[in-house]
Amino acid sequence: MEEVKLTSLVRSSGCNAKLPPGDLHAALDDLRQKKSEFLIEGFESSDDALVYDLADGRVLIETVDFFPPMVDDPEVFGEIAAANALSDIYAMGGEPKIAMSLMCFPSCLDIKIMRRIMEGAIRKTEEAGVVIAGGHTLSDREPKFGLAVSGFADKDSVWTNKGAKAGDSIVLTKKLGVGLLMTAHKAGETAAVEAIAQMRKLNKEAKENAGGLEIHAATDVTGFSLMGHSYEAAYASGVSAVISFERLRYLEGAEEAARYGFVPEGRYTNEDYLQDKVSIPSDFSTAERDMLFSPETSGGLLLFMPPESAAIYIKRFSDAFIIGHVVEKQDYPVIVTR
Ligand code: CO
Ligand code: CO
Q: Is the separation of the CB atoms in 69 and 6 below 8 Å?
């Protein structure tokens, strides 16, 4: 039987399929509900996950993430979706423990494809020490898959996105450019081997290497781009993030993909939403702006920590690199420099 190309069934894929941040805020900002005294992080804070105080020194961390495929191999898609969903627990400094799957699956597809998506997801969750213990499946025209994940952390060591302080170094743990490369990949322009390998990689090591170090704030870089997630952390912390473009590391071919116009749709809605929040030098080319605002999928952790901690961290974990520093609040929450 001929293999169906999963990506041919979807309109947009990966974290690029997120609704634009401006629309989300317009729809959700004024929703009211009763507060829970145990909820430390909730709906309002644009953080990666909810944090619920278990009142025994620990917190429960929960997140959910699912999206349409960006690759054709069902197992690789399962792995990427799992790594991406687990990342929000790591971004809170937590240890993921249990998960439930969310699957939307076209009834016309061979059911074995669903099984292979699950096999990929299980391979990743096992690597993370997580068990998939339930889930829900819908028939849908577009396939989509992801996980709701629960994890735990000690209450005094949970990382939020709002503790960044002036003087902190800003550290990123994966290269950028996945959204650009996967757009070129979908057009048949590149195998995007490095991008796919990076999306499959768990942020487990990135989190564990921070053990014993002072982390003031953390998040992960996904659909809202490096700019969007830097903005959310800087804004929540009441500071400004200064990001040096020349320190950013991109996957090979990402810049070329931008120059040839392989730009994911989310890049434009991201920039629209962020134009009064991010300051970029006027001599930046369109391609350079594409590189800053393009959605990432299963991106790295973005960590805000004192320079001494950052120096130790990047020595321990060679994937990580410093991309900038934090200053007192300026006119713009994010300031990009050459
Ligand atoms: Co996140
Ligand atoms: Co998320």
A: yes
Q: Which ligand is nearest to the CA of 232?
A: 1
CA distance 205 to 121: 18
**What local confidence, expressed as pLDDT, does residue 42 receive?**
84
The one catalytic residue among 6, 9, 10, 15: 15
Known catalytic residue: 15? Answer: yes
Instruction: State in Å: Cα 111 to ligand 1 middle.
Output: 31
The Cα 194–Cα 261 span in angstroms is 20
Tell me which residue of 59, 12, 64 sits closest to 39, measured CA to CA: 59
Nearest to 299 by CA among 18, 110, 7, 9: 18
327 CA from centroid of ligand 1 (Å): 23
At 152-194, the pLDDT tens digits run 999 999 999 999 999 999 999 999 999 999 999 999 999 999 9
Predicted TM-score (pTM) of the model is: 0.96
Q: What whole-number distance in Å separates Cα of residue 35 and Cα of residue 134? A: 28
Ligand nearest to the CA of 24: 2
How far does residue 107's CA lie from ligand 2's centre (Å)? 27
CA distance 186 to 81: 17
Q: Which residues surround ligand 2, an ion (CB under 5 A)?
A: 65, 88
Chunked into runs of 10 residues, the chain (338 residues) has average pLDDT values of 78 81 85 89 85 97 96 97 98 98 96 97 98 97 97 96 97 98 95 97 98 97 97 97 98 98 95 97 97 98 98 98 98 98
CA 2–ligand 1 middle distance (angstroms): 36
What is the whole-number distance in angstroms between the Cα of residue 219 and the centre of ligand 2? Answer: 10
